[in-house]
Design goal:
Number of helices: 14
Helix content: 25-40%
Distance between the termini: 30 Å
Strand order of the largest sheet: 1-17-16-15-18-19
Shape: globular
Number of strands: 19
Length: 418
């Protein structure tokens, strides 16, 4: 199967600056409201300590830090559509005072005694964190943190049942979908082609996979970097190619399980962003026409070329079935195309990055799509639910300036996967 170009290739937009600052709000945990009240747009967001969110009914609820780049952009877009939103990294910040009641007949949740105002129109489970109480005695902190952690687990795992709202994505499904094996098992059942994979901490099984395919790829479950105490240099665990000449130390591999896959001689990568019923696919190569080993390492490079493509009806149907089998409505899927035109599934990130695509290809309206789905609270949304907004408009906004200031004035990174 071969991909069809959907539009002429556009030259790369401005490169992003990488910020290594990870900001976590302290002292006054922040929850801001963006809606009709323009005063909220002009306040110093990071130090609001009075809670306004639930003074308006049925807002969009976002689980993320106020300055998480994608969440901030979506809140701006919601405001432009006169849709209120509340944001916070965890339940202790978002709900302040909350109650859940269950008896033999019903399950109910309310905030500050107002069940009607408590129901959000939709919930974006973007980048949640564990509760981290700061206004308490040090001797009580571990106990209180655990209580909030377990309370949040109860709250989130009931998800849509508790709030009767549309979730992107339901927490229980989101957690399961983060599993590489769960993804591949779902792909297997749908006859989606993917590279043979071994997840192991046994070096002999790695060696056997190499003997079978000649070359394989190593991936970590989660990105990791560190600074050498002796040399002061920075290192990271990156995607690596292994072959018969590679050293496979049993002790080291035994200490750290990894993901090992057959190496595919790629002609291109394909990034597919699925937002409800709509599919947005782009082809990624170098400007020289070569494929990357791992394009994420070069997401900021001006040498990266990206262009819209159409997957074809068969693959689109299979990917939508994959999403349904995983129970998620939003996801960023990575595919690769070999030199014969065959497509292979690699993975889906249920909380992946996507606005870097619109940065490079403004005609792909990803910000508008995610905003429209949150506004309508359903998968079969209409783009017309959201005004004609572009990511470039957000980049010129006061809200983006405030977010950038929280990253030491550097541009927030929209392409770093977690």
């Amino acid at each position: 199967m071969r991909l069809r170009k959907a539009a002429p290739c556009l030259k790369n937009g401005a490169a992003f600056f990488i910020s290594i600052l990870i900001l976590r709000i302290t002292e006054c945990s922040v929850l801001t409201v963006i809606g009709r009240d323009e005063r909220a747009r002009c306040r110093k967001i990071s130090f609001i300590d009075d809670f306004e969110g639930w003074h308006v009914k049925n807002p969009v609820m976002i689980f993320a830090e106020w300055n998480e780049p994608h969440a901030a952009a979506v809140r701006w877009a919601l405001a432009k559509c006169d849709v209120p939103s509340v944001i916070g990294p965890d339940v202790s910040v978002i709900t302040k005072r909350t109650s859940i009641k269950i008896d033999g007949h019903k399950l109910a949740w309310w905030h500050n005694g107002d069940a009607a105002a408590s129901k959000p129109r939709s919930v974006w489970f973007r980048r949640p964190l564990q509760p981290n109480l700061i206004k308490c005695q040090d001797s009580d902190k571990s106990f209180l943190d655990l209580q909030w952690k377990l309370f949040q687990k109860n709250f989130l795992y009931l998800g849509g049942e508790l709030t009767d709202s549309f979730w992107i994505n339901l927490p229980s499904a989101a957690v399961a979908a983060e599993s590489k094996l769960v993804q591949l098992r779902a792909a297997q059942k749908l006859s989606l082609q993917f590279p043979e994979t071994v997840i192991t901490n046994h070096s002999e099984d790695v060696a056997q996979l190499i003997r079978r395919w000649g070359r394989i790829v190593y991936k970590a479950f989660y990105p990791h970097s560190w600074k050498s105490a002796a040399q002061g240099t920075y290192h990271s665990v990156a995607v690596s190619v292994l072959d018969k000449y590679s050293d496979l130390p049993e002790e080291s591999i035994g200490l750290c399980p990894g993901i090992f896959q057959r190496y595919i001689e790629k002609s291109a990568d394909v990034r597919v962003t699925i937002i409800g019923s709509k599919i947005f696919a782009v082809r990624i190569v170098k400007y020289t026409g070569e494929a990357y080993l791992d394009w994420r390492q070069y997401a900021l490079s001006e040498n990266m070329m990206m262009e819209p493509v159409q997957l074809g009806a068969v693959w689109e149907r299979k990917l939508q079935k994959l999403m349904r089998s995983l129970g998620i409505v939003f996801g960023c899927i990575d595919l690769v195309v070999d030199r014969e035109g065959n497509i292979f599934f690699l993975e889906v990130n249920q909380a992946g990055q996507f606005l870097f695509i619109e940065e490079r290809l403004p005609e792909i309206h990803l910000l508008r799509a995610i905003t429209a789905m949150l506004i309508e609270g359903r998968c079969d949304y209409s783009l017309n639910a959201c005004r004609m907004l572009h990511f470039s408009d957000y980049e010129d906004s006061e809200e983006n300036l405030l977010v950038s200031k929280s990253y030491d004035g550097k541009k927030p990174l929209f392409a770093l996967e977690q």
